[in-house]
Each structure stands twice: as C-alpha cells, then as structure tokens.
Amino acid sequence: MPGYKNLSIRQKQIVWAWAFLAVPVVFYVVIRFYPTGSAFVTSFQEWNLLGTRAWTGLENYEKLWNDPVFWKVFRNTFAYLIIGTPISLVISFVIAYHLDKTRFMHGFLRMLYFLPFMTSAVAMAWIWRWFYQPVPVGLFNNFLASMGIPQIEFLNSTTNALPSILAPAVWAGLGFQVIIFMAGLRAIPVTYYEAAKIDGVGWWTVLTRITLPLLKPTIVFIVVFSSIGFLRIFDHVFNMTTNNPGGPLNSTKPLVLMIYETAFRDFDMGYAAAQTVVLFTILLVVSLLQLWLLRGDATK
Amino acid sequence: MGQVIRWLILFLGGLLMVAPIAYMISTSLKWPHEVYNVKLIPDEPHLENYTYVLEDGRFYLWFLNSIIIALITTVCNLFFDSLVGYTLCKFRFPGRYIVFIAILSTLMIPTEMLVIPWYMMSQAFGWLDSYWGIMFPGLMTAFGTFLMKQFFESVPDDFLEAARIDGLNEFQIWWKVAMPLVKPALAALAIFVFLGNWTAFLWPLIVTNSVEMYTVPVGLSSFGDEVDVAWELIATGAAISTLPTLIVFLIFQRFIIRGVVMAGLKG
C-alpha cells in the first residue's frame, strides 16, 4: 500500500474529501436514511412498542382509508393549507409592496412586522389562547363586550376554532415572507420602472406586467415554503387545545397531531407510521405540483 | 399626502403585529385582578410574577436545558454543515455528485416521518430523556449544508491554491482560509439553527418524559396546562421563553434580517 506522501495531488484530494465526509456520511445514513426506510417498513407492520412486530401487509393503510377521523383530519390539514397560504401570501405582498416604497423610518416599520417571526410558536399559542377566552377572561371578547357586540366562541366552536388557530400561525410567519418579498422587489432592475414611467403606464399595469412576473421566483419560494409549513402545523393546534387536542370534535386536528396521538398516546406504531407515509406523500405531491404550476408559467 | 397615509397605515398595521407580544409582556407585569383589563399599561406594574415563576425552579432548568441544547446543536451544525458544504463545493472526487444528491434529498423527508424510528432508536440505545436524545437528530442539516455550499462558491480557488503552496494542509485551508471568508453566511446559519432549536417542540416533547429534561417550549406547554386559569403566570412563562430571542433580535436586527434574506434566496 503506497503511503500518503506518494499519492498524486488528485489522489490526496480524494483522501481528504472522504476524510471530511466520513462522520457526516455516517450521520446521514444512520439518522436520516435508515429511519426513512424504517418508517416505510413499520407502516406495513403492527407493533405496540413492547411486543413483537407482526407483518400485516396493507392493513394499516386500509384501516386509514376506512377511518372517518382520518378523513376529517385530511380535510383539516388541507383547510390549513388552502386558507393559510393565499391569505399570508396576499397580506405579506401588500405589506412588502408598500413598505418598499416607504423611506421614512423604514427600518423601524420593518422591525415591527418582523418581530413576531422571532417568537416561539408554543409561547404565542398560549397568549392567543388567552385572547380567545370567553368574557371576562379573553381580550377579544372583552373588547367586543365593551363595544356592545355579543361575544364570539373562538376555540369552542367547531366552525371558528380552525381559523382561530390558523390566525397566530399566519401572524407569526408574515414577517419572514415580507422580508423575502422585499428582497425580491429590490432585485427588480429600476430601468424597467423608469421605462414604464416614460411611457406613462399606470401603477396597476406596472404591478401586473412588470413587478409580479419578475417576482415569480420569490412567489414560488414563498408559496412552497409556507404551504409546507401549514401542512405540517402542530405546535399551535396542540397548545391551543391541550384540554382536548385537536378539538372540539376533531374540528382542528391536523395530520401531525393525529400521528403524534396514534404513536405516543395509543402506541400503535405501525398505524402511525402509515400516517407519516401519507404525510410524506402529500408534502411531496403538493410541493412538486406547485413547482410545476408556477415554474411552467414563468418560462412563457 | 399619499405618502403620509401609506406610512400611517403601515405604522398602524405594524402596531397590530406587535400587539400580541406587547400584551404578553404587559400581562406578565399585572396583578391577577388586573389581568382581565383590556388596558395595555398595567396600573401598578411589578415583577412578582417573574419571581414566582422563577422561584418555582422549573423554568430555570428548562431555560438551562434549552440554552445548552441550542448552543451545542448550533456549534455542531456550523462545523459539519460548512465542512460538508466546502468539500462538495471545492473538491473533485468520485461519489461527489451522489453524496450531494443524497444529502439534498433528505430535505424532502419531513421530520414527522422520522420521529417514530428516532423514538425506537432512542429507546433501544437508552437515549430517551437525555440531552443527547434531544440533540442527535439535529446535529447536521441538509439545509445548512446546501446554504454553505452556495456560499463557498464565492470563495476564489486561487486563494485556496495559494494556501496549498504555502504548505497548509486541507483542513487548515478550510479552517483558516475559507471559513473566515464566509463569516456572514455562518452568522446567518447560526441564527437559523439556534432559533430553530430554541423553539423546537415536537421532538423534545416526544423524547423527554421527566420534568427536569424539558426544554422551554415543552415545559411551557405543560406549565400552561397545569395553571390554566392563572393567565398572568402563563404570560410570564411565555415572556421568559420569548424575550431572549427578541432581545437578541433587537441588538442584531440588521444582521438577522440580512441573514434571513440570504438564507431565503440561496436556500
């Protein structure tokens, strides 16, 4: 075996590269790839963590298909996505668009919008939970009462609870999206706007013909990023409904909470693993679909 | 005129954004009988809630746990993510493309899918309810590796070549020449990893089971459940878990926002 000194420069590079990669490769294999495979395998088994694992084929998936709670959870998960993403996209764009045009105390305004992004979801879920309490505890209902408006059931209503939980999730993410949008807006060359000004084009045309098309990569990033976030919602739901997780009547339960309960309350590991495979598939399909839809459009 | 109105609306919107945080801090300074008052400024602000919550002792522990865990994972991520990113960017070797694609592909796998196998591993190896158990899944991230690789592209090969001629070995070249040149990227990554671990909830909730091992979010969640009606104490706990990141943000504001932009655009 030739010593290190006798190797060519290229061979030395190979030795160094693999020396640098040794620990990380082991990490990725053991902590990422093996568990991924393991999750798939477990989804075809029945196991309660203590006894032996038994192969059950597609039984977990059949059970899931016939589980009315799963379909409820499935609808909720998409409700978070379908309500949350467009709302946060539009609001953050409007804020970024106007913030970009404001010079006076720009840094201060930007800070106000960004601050919520630095908070912890658990802490703010509990604060919002307090806001939503009925009279005389909750801030919102106290405020409504002082205006003479009848109080609103926020977290105790099957129709209001989901949007009430979504609100702090949207609120916390806005600052991030605003900052990304502003960076995207800055990247658009000023010459386009100058040319439009010379031609005397109105602001709406400038917005729809110049700003939005050139912002497409930013929009793609934000849409994919925020939808993945809403599909994986957990912290907010869990902490705003701890007395009855995902309630009332499962009306707020997302897929991740169902996975958590199946695995760590019912210890039905195979069934929970099948649910994680479904989550993985949903995330993959939704992000690929969005990339395809939005990218395809951008090349026109 | 239009400018003034735009500014005012943006300012009011900004106040609305900060209002929940302001109410959190205000409530943490109120006496129990004042809590249900809509007023933002307490009549007689006091720190009694903080002494009460901290004297209980648990928040100290949770705080300490969170700090230790977030710091170690941050240091580990900075080291390994940049080492791997650098190797994939600056070395030509067989298998390079496969390693890159393999690491990148883990971005597609949601943590939620891995928690069940991680739990089984932790149980088999006795990692449950330990620092190592909380930390091990997050010691390296594909996001960080990808981010660092992008930034090492901007380091000219000539610099590395010059160092090589000066007789530095490859590790020294990375550590002494390349790393100092990507400091802004390292800072951005550090902020992301620290914030991510500070606020992490699902995995710490699963892997810990004794109150002493909780991190701040897990502790706060259990604490809220326990005192349910004492909202001024919950607000105090929430403030304790949020104020450190807010203070860090207020000090390094510009830096953090630039980091978010860099990570957002490159990642």
Essential attributes:
heterodimer; A: 300 residues; 13 helices; 70% helix; B: mainly alpha
Short synopsis of the structure:
Chain A is an all-alpha fold and 300 residues long. Chain A contains 13 helices and 2 strands; from the N terminus they run αββαααααααααααα.
Pick out the low-confidence regions of chain B: none
- The residue-averaged pLDDT of chain A reads 91
Number of helical elements of chain B: 13
Q: Outline of chain A, from the CA principal axes?
A: globular
Give a count of the beta strands of chain B, DSSP E runs of length 2 or more: 0
Largest sheet of chain B: none
Structure in words:
The complex is a heterodimer of chains A (300) and B (267). Chain A has 300 residues and is an all-alpha fold. Helix content of chain A is 70%, strand content 1%. Chain A contains 13 helices and two strands. Chain A has a two-stranded antiparallel sheet with strand order 1-2. In chain A, a hairpin with a 7-residue loop joins strand 1 and strand 2. The longest helix of chain A is centred in the first third of the chain and has 34 residues. The termini of chain A are far apart. The relative contact order of chain A is 0.12. The model of chain A has no long low-confidence stretch (mean pLDDT 91). Chain B is mainly α and 267 residues long. Helices cover 75% and strands 0% of the residues of chain B. Chain B contains 13 helices and no strands. In chain B, helix 1 packs across helix 13, helix 2 packs across helix 13 and helix 7 packs antiparallel against helix 10. The longest helix of chain B is centred in the last third of the chain and has 36 residues.
Topology record:
The complex is a heterodimer of chains A (300) and B (267).
Chain A: H1 9-42, E1 45-46, E2 54-55, H2 59-65, H3 68-100, H4 106-114, H5 121-131, H6 139-146, H7 161-186, H8 190-198, H9 203-214, H10 216-231, H11 235-240, H12 255-264, H13 269-298
Antiparallel strand pairs in A: 1-2
Helix pairs in contact in A: 1-13, 2-13, 3-7, 3-10, 5-7, 7-10, 10-13, 12-13
Chain B: H1 2-28, H2 48-55, H3 58-90, H4 96-105, H5 111-125, H6 131-135, H7 142-152, H8 157-165, H9 170-181, H10 183-199, H11 202-207, H12 216-227, H13 231-266
Helix pairs in contact in B: 1-13, 2-13, 3-7, 3-10, 3-12, 7-10, 8-9, 10-13, 12-13
